[in-house]
Amino acid sequence: MSSVSVCVRFRPCNSREIASTGAKSSRIHILDDRSFDFKDDKEGAIGFSFDRVFNEGSPQGDVFDFVALPIVQDAMNAINGTVLAYGQTGAGKTFSMEGTDDPGQEGILPRVARWIFQYIETADPVYEFIIKLSMVEIYMERIRDLLDSTKDNLQVKEDKTRGIFVAGASEVRRPSYPEAYQDLLRVSPNISDMNANSSRSHCVFLITIQQTNSEDRSVKTGKLFLVDLAGSEKVEKTCAEGKLLTEAKTINKSLSALGNVINALTCGKQSSMQSFFAEKACHVPYRDSKLTRILQESLGGNSRTTLLCCCSSGSYNAAETLSTLRFGLR
Ligand SMILES: Nc1ncnc2c1ncn2[C@@H]1O[C@H](COP(=O)(O)OP(=O)(O)OP(=O)(O)O)[C@@H](O)[C@H]1O
Description:
alpha/beta, Kinesin, 3-stranded antiparallel β-sheet, about 35% helix, about 30% strand, binds adenosine-5'-triphosphate, Kinesin_motor_dom_sf, nucleotide-binding, microtubule binding
């Protein structure tokens, strides 16, 4: 019953873009909350439609409500889910996922954590909840623990009880929102130098929600992956050589692997039932990258995924924006 939706978020032009091409150089003409035209130098106006389009002024709360809320609600019913932020470096992935400390500017991660603990406060007391957090980064196909920097080169394993998991990754239990929020802040690439390669690595946050019914001892578990992907800029544009070139190629390869998996799961826009049969019928290449392997149980099967494509509306980054939009067309 895998279901994938794709949303697009445009960020406002930054000072560099305005200095280079002027404040009114937007390439985007929004038609409604699902569609827009992109003005291309060669092809003219290209029409795009997605499940939802967020414009430059869309509040963080609206993005959370559409992109993450249905997924976190399902996770409380043991349906795994994934939110992926995709886009070139500086496109607004971290702003969307983490946000800032300013009131109303919190991103998806803190809002998800807050929502979960509010839900627990009002839930039937018959349920006992355990909330666990894990955070890893994937850099050059190596998995590193963001909660314990001594744990590097971790391996993805699979067994009958745990399913697919990163062996040895720290898993911390958090009893309330403030503790969970502190963890998120501690590893935030914006304020920590722990993951020095933030734009060049995939940052994977996993929240596991376990509910035990204290009367019949039945247990339900939902896994929620929130992923700030590495920057998707093209290798040519980075003018990279040597190690940087290898890095850029590794990123492109894992993002292509992700695209191929999403493609195989959606095969155009199918109903959940069609997508279920498509997954059974065709090979989904989860093993082509560490990222897709880790996410396997929360992308396919009985799960729900939203891909948030972040881009700039300005002319300066038009080529990268078009490439991001085309990635999202699946
Ligand atoms: N929707 C938005 N509204 C206002 N400011 C934004 C928005 N999106 C991004 N920004 C600002 O643009 C800058 C770059 O955004 P951000 O760091 O989120 O990019 P990124 O895609 O995560 O880049 P990287 O790949 O380097 O991590 C930041 O200063 C951020 O605050």
